[in-house]
Amino acid sequence: MSIQVFGLPVSRGVAIGRAVLVASSRVDVAHYFIDPTQVLDEIARLRRARDEVAEELVALKLEVPEEAHAELVALLDVHLMLLHDEMLADATKQWILERHYNAEWAMSAQLEVLARQFDEMEDDYLRERKADLEQVVERVLKALMRTSRRTRGEEPSAPVAPRDFGGDDQLILVANDIAPADMLQFKRGVFTGFVTDVGGRTSHTAIVARSMDIPAVVGAREASRIVRQDDWVIIDGDAGVMIVNPSAIVLEEYRFRQRQIELERARLHRLRNTPAVTLDGERVELLANIELPADAAAALEAGAVGVGLFRSEFLFMNRQGHLPGEEEQFLSYKAAVEALKGLPVTIRTVDIGADKPLDRMSTHELRHEHTLNPALGLRAIRWSLAEPDMFAQQLRALLRASAFGKVRVLIPMVAHLSEVAQIRAGLEAAKQQLQQRGQAFSDVELGAMIEIPAAALMIRSLLPHFDFFSIGTNDLIQYTLAIDRADEAVAHLYDPWHPAVLRLIEQTITVATAAGKSVSVCGEMAGDPAFTEVLLAMGLRSFSMHPAQISAIKQRVLRADTKHFAALLNNAMAADDPQAAWRNAAGQR
Ligand code: PEP
Ligand code: MG
Questions:
Q1: E strands, 369-454, where?
Q2: I want to staple 346 with a disulfide (CB 3.0 to 4.6 A). Which of 32, 395, 408, 468 is the partner?
């Protein structure tokens, strides 16, 4: 039967493929693809973990006290039987063999399949065995983690291409939640679409999906419970819908739309070498947001004239405590700078915290088990200033990379002048250290992210201390409206058109521009064509976005007359519903 599941549209387009379900588990399970050459080793690792658990269970049986004997021994026997059951043991092996999942993922994928079969059983006794199965799997997962390459701090295996692991069907990831660190793994291009139960429009899962330019739906609540492994699914990233087991006619309709989207993309791509100049001759800078140095090539290919935001925190994720040191960071920044061939690269110092933890953690864990209120906690520059050695390493690495091209350093979540003084002192100290070491660096511009309302309101006081500003609308909206950007329950209130948000953005652009400082928007609004004209009307001439968005935004810029739009701005901003007022006045769809 075909089912439709509704969520939030976060990354456009249509994806059609087989569902790969990433089950949520009580144990923190890493999900990654192993190299095809490691399949047999991974199966051996699984076998060793199973043998270890079998030994544990036998040992437990021997320890059972006399009085509790019969019942407990029977239960442990059930666990031993489940452990060796073909449906668990062999089928888990198949996930490794055919899909190249790591053993932990294979185990939890099979648990999900079996748990559903147990749920459907008529017999109460058998149905209740699901809990036993979960306990057995949990034991195996824990045993596996003791031997995981990642736990030992080793790098995950080399990237794999989708076709490397069997089957010709496209794959779509369906999960309760995907940690940003896992998304990074998936950035290797194995999946052609994502659906998650939780998350908001600007959650980092959504941002990474957009950066991969693949359709995604988040906040689809029950998605991962409704879909089964290998079900055929369609993701409609424009409407925010997932269709499970579509009928042949629906499938055909979506395949047609997919072809149309491809044609439209190819048409837009032809604009990539056209300079972004408005009808009235205003030059507009279209920059790229990247997460890893490897993304720099896509930025150039899309026609970006530089990188407006390199989210360096992605280099720090998933490292199990082994954070990248100065040398490793330097090599990463240098790689990005060199790839940009003389174009500017704006590298943001780590913005770790909130929904971007260092290690794999679901949003649920973050909210409920680790920090009271992570979005208001020790994140971004606050974290860097609390870790002065780490901050110094990063500043030195950034400065050293500046010897190879144009580097601009961007500081996230600035809100206090006391922080500004510490940042400046840190940068001076880093320069001195490099001079003492005799290591080269060039002049770097220093910029502040304007993403806390306090910073937007005190922009005049920040002007003398920074060379440029970048408005992080994702967080600016979150903090202005007190809406957790990752929480689908309040996603309907996350409103970029809110008058308070628009005023803060406009004031920042006006004041910074009047002072001769460059100002850019690097939040998701910059890559959303619905905001291009209103941002141009506010005086914005620099937009930074996912490379995939550049052509679509360029098309809007080429058709815009900034003077015409600027004349409409005041009325729209004064309206109770600026979005409706703007659409009416600007004749926008
Ligand atoms: C923002 O907040 O708008 C931004 C660009 O930074 P991030 O999304 O990484 O928090
Ligand atoms: Mg931000």
A1: 407-411, 445-450
A2: 408
